[in-house]
Structure prediction request, 418 residues.
Amino acid sequence: MNICVIGQGYIGLPTAALFAENGCNVVGVDIKKEVIDDLNKGIVHIEEPGIPEAINDAIKEGRYVAQLEPAEADVFIITVPTPYKMENLSCDLSFVVEACNSILKYVKKGNVIIVESTIAPGSIEETVQPIFEKEGYVIGKDLYLAHCPERVLPGRIMYELIHNDRIIGGVTPECTDKAAEAYGIFVEGELMKTEAKTAELSKCMENTFRDINIALSNELAKICAEIDVNALDVIKLANKHPRVNILNPGPGVGGHCLAIDPYFIYAKAPETAKIIKLARDTNKSMPDFVTEYVEKIIARYDDCENSKIAIFGVSYKGNTGDTRESPAFEIIANLKENGHDIEIFDPHVENEGYHDFKNTIENASLCLILADHDEFKNLDMNSLIKEMKNPIIFDTKNIVQNVPDEIILYNLGNLSKI
Ligand code: SAJ
Prediction:
């Protein structure tokens, strides 16, 4: 089978690799020329286990080529970003529309077209379907159109693409069947058949569920700071209940999914989607909350106004170099605006300036941990004691456990003690 994947990012590239690994001829398309040139040399621009090996094998076997222009295929898969529009928080489909337009001249009767990008409920019906119908195709007869969202965890993408159950939402039952046939090539999880709009909303709702639950734990952290209770102890104890699972509070919610997808639902029903919007607002308030407590710590322990703060971790979550929508940058901007000197240490993010541990902590008044990288679990405490101006850690991810007496440790549990 010939497959053309539009968008060679976090999802498109591993998807292309898996089709190639399973005997398909795959063309990977992207608008970035440097990405295309690198991919054809086997150089992969994404930090994700398994992808470089799979792409290099596919190139060697002649089953994968990257190019700027789409090509004829049996199945077209669209995996381009869907940001939200600033003005009304709705789903910005412009990249999806561009991708659809770009394949028009290669599409033939009998082809399957799948949108994997996360999209607002109704997007296929209202926006994507008309693009092909305008060309005279009857969907479900001439062309088969479906929305099949991915649901993978960064760091485990290759494994989860194969093993997770998959939602297959066709415009008609024929579309659903054809799309399921394509995924059957490498997916070992269940192929759950439904219609496009249900698939769209299910995907948005998965991430909304998580966003709301994180907001609840962030709200708890704020309440506990006010009424002098340790939020982390509350979570530990409450979670002993067999049907309770409170998530972890943190500096905010980042990434390209949880921080965005809930808006797609909200924008469709703003009068009704109250909890969804409130949860977003709560999570978006966390950078200011963290800034407020950094200032309280500094005011308590430091005598100068423009103290140096050592930021540990700017990626949106632990053990990844991905900084998309990371709340760390808002916190850094706040602290700079307040006049502080900022040095950043993040061994996962590709930026030479972020890799010097000693320089980051030297003479710092506070070490502010914003990502739960494994490297931060066992920090070199002796160096912190020796090099920092004040050996204080504010660990917003609750990753540092045992500290020597010389170090003062704050986290989102004991803020009322500042
Ligand atoms: N976070 C917290 N507290 C927690 C858990 C997470 O503050 O208890 C924060 C993280 O630090 C991060 C953000 O939330 O900033 C999102 O992280 P995540 O690990 O929850 O999610 P993503 O964005 O990496 O991946 C999600 C996954 N969705 C769900 O778990 C429902 C994944 O399965 C989806 O495929 C992916 O979004 C996506 O592509 O939509």
Notes: The pocket of SAJ is lined by residues 118, 151-154, 206-207, 210, 214, 247-248, 250, 253-255, 257-258, 316-317 (CB under 6 Å). The two ends are 63 Å apart (CA to CA). The chain has a mean pLDDT of 97.
